[in-house]
Amino acid sequence: xxxxxxxxxxxxxxxxxxxxxxxxxxxxxxxxxxxxxxxxxxxxxxxxxxxxxxxxxxxxxxxxxxxxxxxxxxxxxxxxxxxxxxxxxxxxxxxxxxxxxxxxxxxxxxxxxxxxxxxxxxxxxxxxxxxxxxxxxxxxxxxxxxxxxxxxxxxxxxxxxxxxxxxxxxxxxxxxxxxxxxxxxxxxxxxxxxxxxxxxxxxxxxxxxxxxxxxxxxxxxxxxxxxxxxxxxxxxxxxxxxxxxxxxxxxxxxxxxxxxxxxxxxxxxxxxxxxxxxxxxxxxxxxxxxxxxxxxxxxxxxxxxxxxxxxxxxxxxxxxxxxxxxxxxxxxxxxxxxxxxxxxxxxxxxxxxxxxxxxxxxxxxxxxxxxxxxxxxxxxxxxxxxxxxxxxxxxxxxxxxxxxxxxxxxxxxxxxxxxxxxxxxxxxxxxxxxxxxxxxxxxxxxxxxxxxxxxxxxxxxxxxxxxxxxxxxxxxxxxxxxxxxxxxxxxxxxxxxxxxxxxxxxxxxxxxxxxxxxxxxxxxxxxxxxxxxxxxxxxxxxxxxxxxxxxxxxxxxxxxxxxxxxxxxxxxxxxxxxxxxxxxxxxxxxxxxxxxxxxxxxxxxxxxxxxxxxxxxxxxxxxxxxxxxxxxxxxxxxxxxxxxxxxxxxxxxxxxxxxxxxxxxxxxxxxxxxxxxxxxxxxxxxxxxxxxxxxxxxxxxxxxxxxxxxxxxxxxxxxxxxxxxxxxxxxxxxxxxxxxxxxxxxxxxxxxxxxxxxxxxxxxxxxxxxxxxxxxxxxxxxxxxxxxxxxxxxxxxxxxxxxxxxxxxxxxxxxxxxxxxxxxxx
Length: 826
Fold this sequence. Notes:
Radius of gyration: 54 Å
CATH class of the largest domain: Alpha Beta
Low-confidence stretches: 1-41, 776-781, 822-826
Largest sheet: 5 strands, antiparallel
Strand content: 15-25%
Number of helices: 23
CATH topology of the largest domain: Heat Shock Protein 90
Helix content: 40-55%
């Protein structure tokens, strides 16, 4: 805490006043005594006056002594109080601050500084102000506190937030009291961190919201559950809740509040009323399948038969005591009646089974036959069921018997369906091919209750299929021995065949879903377009043709062209198509397009670059022509001559760049190399650039004196290009930096600007011929040749060029040159 200059205690002021009074009394004694002596001449009276004065003095001294003792006591108490306050101030239990009402914090203890994240140094610097710490939304309540301070000398405690030094907010509670006539501060304030309280309140609110949401979700689940749910509570089991299914089933919603007895009377229920009471009394659940009751659920006065799968569950209160019964049920009346109808239709089934042109049979869950239709008896010539049951396995061709027996055993064990082909012996002694299909019939629990099978004569189709198979083998042999991918899709759009070329190209094995596997190899950017194209053509049954990027087994995406025609047999049977790799043609076409685009851009930029100086040169010459017709004044003519020379220089630079490109392409660029001190050459380039620009300062940060063996003119051409570009592409800045350093056995020169930078996707092309970052803009002049020429010059010296750039922050262009064999740092 800051220590103020010593001030006189109020009691000290009072003591001084008393001493002044005594001195004044003693001074007044002499005139009074003299006046009395002259007036009366009585020594006795003078003596009495002296005694009176002495008595007054003594009394005053006694009062002074008493007051002195009181002052010492008050000082002692004040000191003790000050010590207690100091302990509270330093204890760090509560934040304490001395402030002015304008917001300035004069002094603060560590507890307060910890709350707001500032330091004592911040307080001393005047950087802590409770007005600035207060967020805008607490301005009104803060103004109210200041108003109370002005009017009543203190403000009632209230809560708000402070903004910490790190920007986070902290919840606090504060109270303040005004200091009377104190030049140190106007108020003292305590501040308490109540963040944990606020967080606890928020957690409590969140918990309450969660509980409310869970209750609502539970209610919604119960209300919208597909089962009937009803809850009854209390000894009389009054209906408290009925969900939508239960209400729709029997309008239970109209019975809310009724007891079990009243409900049974209302809906004319014929069932045991003690079931629910027994569950309520014992707490033991009750469940039943196909539980039969009679009930007037539609309110027409006519009870109907109803079968329910139901459960009665006890419901408990908060203390764990049974206080109700919950009903969960499904109406299975329809299923029960359906089972009865199934029995009635069994005879109809047998009649129909005998009429179909297939051999049909059924068996029990264990796989033993229970029925054969008329087709079996006619095919085998057997008339007895037992004889046919034995004969059914004997008529299977010996080559097919083991597979058929194994498949049937597996199907019965696993409850699966089956489709297989076998040859059966007929009455004429011929083995004919049959397609056998077997399906399990299961109950609601998934348990097989019977097997149903059919065997269809497919002998003619099989013979045709064998012939087609031979033809297909010939087709595959042809398809697999060429470089074109061949594929086939069926009428549903599934890819059913690919040749070996597909496998060799993609590196994939054959999977169950060839289409998904093929689409996985299509470039992600092309998948949607390919799917839409194939889908539309497939629906239209028209030939399709499209190209896309396809990944090969090396992981490279290459352009391919697919072409396919629809198949009809006579109905639509799918597509057969091919995929051809056209990547080389596609890349060549794109390269040609790119070159044409660069050519067109170059011609546009070149015409613009040439037109500007020519136009300016023409204007200068016209003005010179007019001036020459008048009186000759060199002072007037000189600026236009300079301008013309400048434009001629620009034209010369453009022509030189074009000639350099021609020399580079033809291999005729000559280098005149000598040993020279590189730093001197750099300074010459800086001086040259400085003649043409005053907007930028070129700062050499690092300048190691190194000697190189190179064509000085060509290297200076590169440096001037780097420096010119740095200035041109940082128009909003005023500085460019240069570094010259040794990098191993090379010299490294770099130029850094702080301008617009270069996008990441264009940096790889920055040294290409005709490349311009801002292709369609004339804001930055140039043909896109400077960096290309610079790269070629450095490359022919055995060096390298490169850049480091971030868009919006600037760029660094650098190149390296081999040091001479004898080079050392000079």
